[in-house]
Amino acid sequence: MDLYDENIARLIRHSLTGELSEQEWGELEAWLHDSEEHRVLFEKIKKEIRISSESSLFCSLNDEVAWLKFKTTARERKRRVYVRRMLTYAAVIVLPLAVVVGFWFLSQEKDTFPMASERVVKITPGRPRAVLITADQTVHELNGVQEQREIEVEKGVMIKQGGANLEYDSLVAPEQEVALAMNTLKVPRGGEFRLKLSDGTNVYLNSASELKYPVRFDEKERKVYLSGEAYFEVTKDLNRPFYVVMEEVQVRVYGTEFNVNTHQPGKVHTVLVDGKVGIKKRGMTEEVTMKPGQLASFDREAGTFEVKEVDVRQYVVWKDGYFTFENESLEQILNTLSLWYDVDVFFQSESAKQLVFTGYMKRYNDISEILNAITDVVGVNFTINGKTIIVSK
How many separate domains does the chain show? Predict the structure, then answer.
C-alpha cells in the first residue's frame, strides 16, 4: 500500500475520531501490519494531533480589576483569529508526517467540514453539566438548568439536585441500615459541577474530571477517588480523616481547602489554600506535609515530589470564573483551554509549545479574545477549523 495514499489518510482520521467501520478497521490494520514504517508514522500522527480525551469562596477577584490586568498584559491591539477551511494548510515538522497530517485537513469530505460560509461551528465556554452514575449503574444526565428534584441513589436513599449542584448532605436514609455503594460523577470537556458530600464537604469539579465516592461515609474514614481537577472544602472531622486517592498519589486531610489537578502533562499538582495535608505516592508510607500557600508537584516519571511556595490564586480561581496564567507554556495553556472550550489543539511547530504567556482573563469569555491576547504578546497565529485550533509561528 502507498504510504501517502489519500484513502489511508482517511482511515487514520476516522480511527482517531472513533468513526472506523469494521471494513475500514480491517483495511487500516492491514496497512499497519504491512511495515514497521507505517506503524511508526501512525504513532507520530497520534502524538502530534493531540486529540484530548473528553461562587466566590477564596479570594474572588474584582471583575474590572482582573480585566484591566488582562488588557494591560495583552495590550490593546487586536489581531483577527482566522476562521477558514484548511485548503491552504502547509506542511509541518517532518516531511512524512506533513504529508499525512496535511491529508487530515485537506481531504475532508464535504459533509464533514463544509466551508465557513455554509456552517460555522461555534466554540462556547464551558457550562454546568455532568453525568451521575448511581450504585445500580443508572445514569442521570445533569444539565445545570434543572429545577430542584430528588434522585434515588440507592434503594430508599434520596439526594437533591438543582441547577449546578448535587447534594448528599440532605439525603434521606432508609429506616433500616443498608450497605451503601459508590456513586460516580463525571464532568465532560466543556463542563463543571459542584457536589456536596454526605459529611458536608464541598467539591468543585472542573472539565474532564471524575469523582467516585460513597453515598455515605463510614465511621472510620472518608475516602474519594479523583481523576482530573477538583477544589475541595473539607468539613473538619478529627475522628475521620479525609482521603483523595488518584492513580499515583494520595492526599490525607482532616479539614482544609485545597486544589488537585491531574491534567498537567507528567505531573500531579496539589495546592493547599488553608489547613494542613499530608501527601504521598500510593503504596508508600512516607508523607510530604504541606502548609498553606504551597504547591506539591508530583513527577510521574521520577516518582518524586517537589514542594514550593506559590501564589495559590493562580491555581484556584478557575472555580470563581477566571483563568490566571503566570509564565505558563503555550502547551499548558492550550491544554487548559481545550478542556474548558471542548476543542482539539494541534501545534504546527514544536517550538511554539514552549513559548510562555502571562494573563488574567474571564473564564466565560469568547475564546477568540483569549487567543487574540496570546497572539499579541507571543506572536503565534491561531487558525480555527470547526472545533480544532491550529497553532503556528
Answer: 1
Task: Specify the pTM.
Answer: 0.69
CA separation (Å) from 321 to 66, 72, 129, 218, 365? 11, 19, 16, 34, 10
Strand locations in 82-129, DSSP E?
82-83, 127-128
Of 108-117, 334-343, 370-379, minimum mean pLDDT range: 108-117
Please give the order of strands across the beta sheet that includes 222-227. Answer: 139-142, 130-133, 182-187, 209-214, 222-227, 242-245, 249-253, 277-281, 288-290
Confidence of residue 33 (pLDDT cuts 50, 70, 90): confident
* Structural domain includes residue 263: yes
The answer to whether position 331 is within a domain reads no
Q: Worst-scoring range by mean pLDDT, 14-23, 81-90, 167-176, 193-202?
A: 81-90
Domain assignment of residue 353, yes or no: no
The grid coordinates of residue 150 equal 430528588
Q: How far apart are CA 338 and CA 360, in angstroms?
A: 17
Which CATH number is 240's domain given?
2.60.120.1440
Q: Give start and end residues of each alpha helix (H) in the chain.
A: 6-17, 22-34, 36-49, 63-74, 95-106, 313-316, 330-341, 350-353, 367-378
Distance set, CA 222 to CA 152, 178, 269, 286 (Å): 21, 18, 21, 20
Domain assignment of residue 141, given as a range: 127-317
Name the band, by pLDDT with cuts 50, 70 and 90, for residue 254: confident
Could you tell me the sign of the dihedral formed by the alpha carbons of 274, 341, 391, 361, in that order?
A: negative
DSSP for 288-303 reads: EEE-TTEEEEEETTTT
